[in-house]
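Possible regression after last week's pipeline update?

I re-ran a chain I had predicted before the update to compare outputs. Posting the input and the new output here so someone can diff against the archived version. Not blocking, just want to make sure nothing changed silently.
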Amino acid sequence: MSRKKNNDQKAKESIMNLCTSAGMNTWFIAKVLGSPGIHYGAFHAEGVNIYKFDKVQPVLQQTNQWGNFSEASVDFYAQKTVLALKGVSNGCTITILEKGKDLVPLLQSNTNISVQIIERPWWRKILGFRSKTKWKMAVATIVYILLIGKVVGTFTGSGSSASTTSASSTVSEPAKTPEQIAKEKADALKITDSDKELLKKSYASFDTQQRDQFDKIKEKYKNLSNSEVADISTDFARLSTEEAAVKKKEAEEKAAADAKAAYKKWVDSQFSAWDGSNRYLVDLLKKNLNDPKSFEHVETKYWDRGDYLIIKMSYRAKNAFGGLILQNVTAKSDYKTDTISIISQND
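New output (post-update):
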């Protein structure tokens, strides 16, 4: 891993920890265009905080609250997303360098901001034509003409040689052309009718296969055109919110189940499988007996209080005069502190 990547990851983790400690519901941390250089945007439920990372700790540069804005325009480029926020008397523009498309459904489902996705003509989506800079478009035109000529020449030459050997060739499946391969890859990235049908459903009703399909839709979403994003963004935002809620509930249920299992294991470990005595209480009691070797366990009962046990044990042991007498002791065994203490004796 490069040092640059280490620094980037360190910055994001540091900012995420800072936001978590401040009680923010942080959606994600992404690089944004700063002044100067690269800064980091912490996008959260209340707004966006812009930080500069000085190799030691994040320094807050700017704070914007979603509640101060009523409109937003989003322009997607190949390597960036330009978010323009507008309020009654203020506005700001943030250039996001990653995860730009992830922000749109979050804004739509969690704020009152009216989001408009800017549409661009198809030719402005071609590399070299996006900025409308004349010299870039001229260079791109020359490069594309040369590439097209090379491709045409390649297929023309291969066609003539193939005709001389076709008679002796065995019948086989024709090789896919670069265009066919490119089309298949492009089709794989498109939102299908099946995807659109899935987006109308509730995430809570998804089976494992449908969850996998939605994961693939999320990957496709990152590469969609502006018009395709606009077509499904409402359903996508709703499902993303539902997914977060379902997974949070599942995580909480798993944590509760794990905690319950751990507690049961702790309870079971408290008592001897041989005579049912609490080994920790026996050890504690013997330290205070006149003759520890005379200890004889009779019976142990316990009451489970949720995070501690009340234990009552009957036993025989010699008193100060050497007589073997029946006695009892009541103790508390605490799960959280993993300690045991005597409450009373011979009551």
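Follow-up from reviewer: compared with the archived run. The chain has a mean pLDDT of 85. Marking as no regression found.
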